[in-house]
Amino acid sequence: MSRAGAVRRIGLLILAANVVLAAAKGWVWLDTGSLAVGSEAANSLVDAVYATVVLAGLYLTTQPPDSEHPHGHERIEPFVALAIALGIFLTGGTVLWQSVTAVLAGSVAATESPVAIAVLAGAALVKAGLYRYSLSASRTHDSPALAATALDNRNDVLTAGAALVGVVGARLGFPLLDPLAAALVSVGILYTGVDVVRDNVPYLVGGAPSEALQRRILRRALAHPDVEGAHDVIAHYVGPEIDVSLHIEVEGDRTLREAHDIESAVVESIRALDDVDDVFVHIDPKELGEWKRDPETDRLVRRSEEPMDDEPNADGG
To answer: In whole angstroms, how far apart are CA 20 and each of 39, 54, 88?
Structure first.
């Protein structure tokens, strides 16, 4: 299945699951009055609302390139992930507020209903499945929005587990476990929101990719037999994709056609790397005195741990 079809299918699945869970938890909350179950109902309702936002965002990101967006619409994805982070903060803050208020007021509405236990346990299992599914899909399709969605589903497993602890605690005669467990998990929810923001900010501000990927880019450039060196290698995120620019050092006696072929081969070799979008290569002839030492390039070459024989030659060999 194409990337576009996959992310839309996952978005629809998550939206449908959250609507069903919100309805089931809401029904149990109205029947029992449990704070833990009510917090979980609110959690699923918020999830359903922003899952709609995510689905709309993913629809936009998977549209084909057009005259106004020649590189496609994937750069919208980090904004979708930040919308998910907003939902995470809202959920964590709501649960924390309700829990602290209940503890300070000394009024804890807990339930011993076996139906509540069944609904919360089922919710935890569903969310665990969605977490694994979203995480796998985010890695397969390199989607920041799906990665953020996976983290949110992992949070939902924790919140459902906390609510379950509260309900079981009430059955055992410890009703305060209900709001205390919810308060503890709310801190984890808020921290995950911070993680989502931190993970997506580099996509928006042109951050550099991992050093391992930078080394692979450099090794591919240097793999060409006519490239004697490289300098001023710059790789940075433009949305979830990476643009690369670099200078390669070539003997100046090459014909224009040979220089063009060298440049094209290096460009295609680097562009074949996952996540790389545009590659810009400038050729520096030795005779013009433009070859130079680049300490950062030398450091990346020395630290490279990847064997050369698993990289294709930049000339296609």
So the answer is: 16, 17, 19
